Structure to design on (642 residues):
């Protein structure tokens, strides 16, 4: 187990170094000129302003020096200062990250709550209407543009039907609960603030449902195929022959074994959740990393782009590492392969 | 197992690390007939093919069949609801939504096809050579694949597109840079699985040069699973192209592009038709290609069904 963990950690470390290089290259070695983007056309005509800007942000030094400076800062948890907000990128990230974690966690909960039963039933009743429905639902999930679903659901459930609250994380009149975790749901629970809790939950539901559409189909599909595989194995026949109740066979024997691939896919799905979060957060005015990433990207705010891309990729690598490790614990064969 | 990139946690991900799939040898006429028969037994797949063909036709014939010029502004009819004059209504500048949706296909369909095609060629060649030669090149190529795959692909494409500046060409380039790794992985896996087959040994015994074995024997025989992945990815590419344009990083106004059109209508909640119809177009093409890919996968690898 020791070698397995250290090998996985080493691979994750290699991935992280690669990430820093790619992030750095993307934001520095490309044609778009951050000077024009940030100073505007007029100021960028004046050489003394341009020189001062380049010196201030270190753009006048050779690329590898800029990269080493970036790495050095990274080790200290310093991503530099955002050109947009004029605050430390680390501070921005710390402020926006919890909102994204809250949203994507809620989306995962919804995806599992709906996708898992759908996958199990479609495997149990293979080729029945419920199986076809599950297949259709998962195909719709991967085919629907999330930015469109978000736009349309805001129009339908907020503007037309009035069933959902508007954009944002809380109602206009409601004070945010004292920050402990940064998640309004958890924080208002901790503070015992019922009003804030119900408002936070109401605001969370629609964006989380929209966001979960991208991975629910995946959860359904993977659960279904691993259930089918488990159901055809010898120990299932043995369990039936022993006269166990069908419900017990399904839950205790089949589902338990079929869950492993589903857990794995959740780690991978995290990447698509974070991508979907960019659009969901932008449309629902959800003050998270996704919206921050979008704003940084469109204004070529390179310290923020690097910081946010790095943190998002880091979350993704860590999620996959956690899944790999969990997988190794659940299934000893993996460790030695 | 791995997936869709991004938003690309597409079903393609799921196929990537799957074991090499059973392969059909270069089809004899009777084999071909069997494949056709199997396709005919899949109504969803046929529906998908029909829908895609219709959209290709509509896009190709847009200049002939569109009732209006897609960028012609007609202020008198701005924000007009769907009517006999404007079937799908008019947008904020009085442009005809129906004509713009038709012309939108002329952007999305070729862009998605080009991204998938170039990514397939590049990824397959790299992965094929890596799997075939092994050694340091293989390790290096696969680490590169790992690193690119370690990014959520839309985020990376977004950063690249933003850095390059908004244009549909830059959006394509950004997508290409994140799109090839799953193909490299799949092709490598296929080549590794196939290279000890008898026919490869026979080819080697006959003294064929290595590059010929790779190009004429290994890669063509890896084609079936690649085709499934390409089909499903086409829908994803349509969605990501639209997503980048929606975010303002792809097509620039007044280009009629589906994602950009959804963005133009998103603040106009009362005028639902402006963003609804282009969204439906994206959804129809994407789900149709997924139906085709799903059907193809059943045919190529019935075990997954």
């Amino acid at each position: 187990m020791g070698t397995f963990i250290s090998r996985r950690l080493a691979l994750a470390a290699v991935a992280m170094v690669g990430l820093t290089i790619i992030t750095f290259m993307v934001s520095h070695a490309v044609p778009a000129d951050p000077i024009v983007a940030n100073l505007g056309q007029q100021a960028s005509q004046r050489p003394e302003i341009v020189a001062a800007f380049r010196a201030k942000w270190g753009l006048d030094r050779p690329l590898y020096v800029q990269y080493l400076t970036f790495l050095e800062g990274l080790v200290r948890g310093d991503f530099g200062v955002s050109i947009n907000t004029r605050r430390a990128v680390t501070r921005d990230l710390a402020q926006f990250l919890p909102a994204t974690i809250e949203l994507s966690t809620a989306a995962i909960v919804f995806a599992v709550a709906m996708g898992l039963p759908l996958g199990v039933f479609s495997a149990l009743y293979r080729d029945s209407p419920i199986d076809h429905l599950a297949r259709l639902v998962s195909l719709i999930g991967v085919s629907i543009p999330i930015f469109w679903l978000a736009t349309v659901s805001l129009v339908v459930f907020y503007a037309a039907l009035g069933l959902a609250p508007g954009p944002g994380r809380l109602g206009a009149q409601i004070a945010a609960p004292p920050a402990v975790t940064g998640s309004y749901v958890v924080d208002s629970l901790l503070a015992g603030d019922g009003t804030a809790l119900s408002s936070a939950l109401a605001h969370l539901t629609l964006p989380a449902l929209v966001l979960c559409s991208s991975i629910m189909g995946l959860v359904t599909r993977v659960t279904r195929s691993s259930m089918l595989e488990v159901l055809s194995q010898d120990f299932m026949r043995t369990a039936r022959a022993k006269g166990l109740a069908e419900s017990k066979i399904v839950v205790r024997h089949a589902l338990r074994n079929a869950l492993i691939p589903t857990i794995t896919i959740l780690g991978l799905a995290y990447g698509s959740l974070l991508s979907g979060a960019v659009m969901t957060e932008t449309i629902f005015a959800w003050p998270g990393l996704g919206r921050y990433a979008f704003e940084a990207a469109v204004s070529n705010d390179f310290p923020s782009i690097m910081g946010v891309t790095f943190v998002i990729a880091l979350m993704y690598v860590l999620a996959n590492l956690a899944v790999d490790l969990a997988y190794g614990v659940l299934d000893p064969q993996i460790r030695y392969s | 197992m791995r997936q869709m990139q991004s938003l690309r946690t597409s079903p393609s991900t799921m196929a990537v690390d799957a074991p090499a799939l059973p392969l059909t040898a270069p089809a004899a006429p009777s084999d071909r007939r069997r494949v056709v028969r199997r396709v005919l037994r899949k109504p969803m797949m046929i529906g998908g093919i029909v829908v895609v063909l219709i959209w290709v036709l509509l896009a190709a014939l847009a200049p002939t069949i569109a009732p209006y010029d897609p960028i012609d502004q007609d202020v008198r009819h701005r924000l007009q609801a769907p009517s006999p004059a404007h079937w799908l209504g008019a947008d904020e500048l009085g442009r005809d939504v129906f004509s713009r949706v038709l012309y939108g296909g002329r952007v999305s369909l070729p862009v998605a096809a080009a991204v998938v095609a170039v990514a397939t060629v590049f990824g397959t060649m790299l992965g094929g050579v890596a799997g075939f030669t092994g050694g340091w090149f293989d390790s290096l190529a696969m680490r590169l694949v790992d690193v690119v795959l370690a990014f959520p692909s839309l985020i990376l494409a977004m950063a690249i597109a933003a850095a390059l500046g908004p244009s549909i060409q830059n959006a394509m380039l950004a997508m290409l840079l994140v799109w090839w790794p799953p193909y490299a992985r799949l092709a490598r896996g296929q080549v590794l699985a196939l290279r000890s087959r008898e026919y490869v040994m026979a080819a080697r015994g006959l003294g064929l040069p290595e590059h010929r074995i790779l190009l004429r024997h290994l890669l063509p025989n890896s084609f079936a699973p690649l085709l499934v992945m390409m089909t499903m990815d086409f829908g994803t590419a349509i969605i990501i192209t639209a997503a980048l344009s929606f975010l303002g990083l792809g097509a620039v106004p007044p280009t009629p592009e589906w994602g950009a059109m959804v963005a133009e209508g998103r603040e106009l909640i009362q005028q639902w038709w402006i963003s609804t119809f282009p969204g439906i177009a994206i959804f129809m093409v994407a789900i149709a290609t997924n139906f085709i890919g799903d059907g193809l996968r059943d045919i190529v690898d019935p075990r997954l069904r």
Remarks:
- The first helix of chain B runs from residue 11 to 16.
- Chain B touches chain A through 61 residues (CB under 8 Å).
